[in-house]
């Protein structure tokens, strides 16, 4: 058992767990969840979950990571995925100020 295989298995298990939670609360349907990842980095964790939540938002303090994520959102998810620059300590304010109001109000 190697560190690489451990972290790969952890990533798969975590993605599956979060995906199932999203499914349980409505998935991609109207009224489904807003999934937010704080500290999204280059976006690898959100990518496989974009089909499991109504809206998806990655937040990171590093503008270079956020710009990378913005440039790599698949075309079919452009309308329901956002990546924003900000401090997680101000998450509620950040989401209210940076996301479309319908994304936040529906939750």
Question: How would you summarize what this structure contains?
Answer:
This protein has helices spanning 3-24, 63-71, 91-98, 101-105; strands spanning 34-38, 55-60, 81-85.
Description:
There is one protein chain. With 107 residues, the protein is an alpha/beta fold. The chain is 41% helix and 15% strand. The chain contains four helices and three strands. It has a three-stranded parallel beta sheet with strand order 1-2-3, with helices on one face. Helix 2 (63-71) links the parallel strand 2 and strand 3 (81-85). The chain is globular, with a radius of gyration of 14 Å.
Structural class: alpha/beta
SSE order, as H and E? Answer: HEEHEHH
Q: Biggest β-sheet: count, sense, barrel? A: 3 strands, parallel
Separate helix tally:
4
Q: How does the overall form come out from the CA principal axes?
A: globular
- Helix coverage percent: 40-55%
Topology (SSEs and partners):
Blueprint (H helix, E strand, L loop, with lengths): L2 H22 L9 E5 L16 E6 L2 H9 L9 E5 L5 H8 L2 H5 L2
Parallel strand pairs: 1-2, 2-3
List the defining traits of the structure above.
107 residues; 3 strands; 4 helices; alpha/beta; single chain
């Amino acid at each position: 058992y190697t560190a690489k295989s451990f972290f790969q298995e952890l990533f798969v298990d975590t993605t599956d767990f979060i995906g199932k939670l999203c499914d349980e609360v409505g998935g991609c349907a109207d009224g489904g969840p807003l999934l937010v990842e704080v500290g999204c980095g280059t976006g690898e964790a959100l990518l496989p979950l974009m089909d499991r939540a109504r809206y998806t938002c990655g937040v990171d303090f590093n503008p270079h990571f956020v710009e990378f994520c913005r440039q790599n959102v698949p075309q079919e998810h452009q309308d329901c995925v956002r990546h924003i620059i900000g401090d997680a300590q101000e998450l509620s304010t950040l989401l209210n100020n940076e996301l479309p109001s319908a994304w936040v109000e529906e939750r």
